[in-house]
């Protein structure tokens, strides 16, 4: 791939619709917006590691999502990856939470991959205090997880994920105070022809209110509604100028 040319994964797929799970998160994670796509870690100070799980089950499909990291990139570990529901979402210590055991797979901002308590070098450490965009491509058919950084592919990070029988979900975590990650650009592959047809129809519908005006059976209306995005509340701006030594 030409490093100057960015070809996003699943560009011929469709928009996906999932968010961070309000019920499956550390008490040190605050979620914002109607769609809860912005996660703020340790809003006051940090004395440990906090994480949050996504609502999207990934197994047997192909999914791509991006994370916009605020300029506050620092600390022991900021991580992005996937895991089962057995993966911890909180620790009272500064640790690499994703990949601490066999239940999760993650990349830290220090450029290290973690799984089953083992780390390996993957890419250069991220520059601290510089806005960064992380892309994550999960291929449940090939069983691979690939990362992108600022629109450049970093290569396959993990393999064999198609052999995992338990449900897998996106997970992010951070040890650093007042750090924020915003979920965006969610894409997925089509499941079947019906799914592809729904995507075409939804592109012509702006809101769920518009959907009510369609003369279609209730069951089909409900099927279409699953893919319609509602406008979200503007996200709260995090004060990135204030420093904090807690990591």
What would you say this structure looks like, in words?
Helices cover 9% and strands 36% of the residues. It is mainly β. It is globular and about 55 Å long. It starts with 13 loop residues before the first strand and ends in a 22-residue tail after the last helix. Mean pLDDT is 88; it is low at 230-245.
Name some characteristics of this structure.
247 residues, mainly beta, 3 helices, 9% helix
Quick summary:
The protein has 247 residues and is mainly beta. The chain is built from three helices and 16 strands.
Specify the overall morphology. globular
Q: State the order of secondary-structure elements, H for helix, E for strand.
A: EEEEEEEEEEEEEEEEHHH
- As an assembly, this protein is single chain
Radius of gyration using CA atoms only: 18 Å
Q: What is the share of helical residues? A: under 10%
Instruction: Profile the largest sheet.
Output: 8 strands, antiparallel
End-to-end Cα distance:
36 Å
Low-confidence stretches: 230-245
Class inferred from helices and paired strands: mainly beta
Number of helices: 3
Query: In what range is the share of β-strand residues?
Result: 35-45%
- Give the overall pLDDT as a whole number: 88
Number of strands: 16
């Amino acid at each position: 791939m030409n490093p100057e040319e960015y070809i996003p994964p699943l560009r011929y797929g469709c928009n996906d619709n999932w968010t961070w799970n309000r019920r499956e998160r550390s008490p040190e994670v605050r979620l914002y917006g109607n769609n809860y796509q912005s996660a703020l870690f340790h809003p006051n100070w940090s004395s440990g590691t906090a994480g949050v799980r996504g609502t999207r089950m990934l197994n047997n499909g192909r999914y791509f999502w991006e994370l916009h990291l605020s300029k506050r990139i620092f600390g022991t570990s900021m991580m992005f990856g996937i895991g089962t529901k057995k993966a911890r979402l909180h620790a009272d210590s500064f640790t690499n939470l994703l990949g601490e055991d066999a239940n999760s797979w993650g990349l830290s901002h220090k450029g290290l991959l973690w799984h089953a308590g083992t780390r390996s070098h993957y890419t250069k450490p991220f520059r601290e205090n510089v806005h960064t965009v992380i892309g994550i491509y999960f291929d449940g058919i090939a069983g691979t997880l690939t990362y992108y950084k600022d629109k450049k592919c970093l290569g396959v990070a993990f393999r064999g994920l198609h052999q995992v029988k338990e449900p897998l979900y996106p997970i992010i975590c951070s040890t650093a105070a007042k750090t924020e990650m915003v979920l965006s650009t969610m894409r997925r592959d089509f499941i079947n022809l019906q799914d592809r047809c729904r995507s075409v129809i939804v592109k012509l519908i702006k809101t769920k209110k518009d959907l009510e005006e369609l003369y279609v059976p209730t069951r089909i209306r409900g099927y279409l509604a699953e893919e319609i995005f509602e406008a979200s509340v503007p996200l709260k701006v995090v004060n990135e100028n204030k420093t904090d030594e807690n990591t």
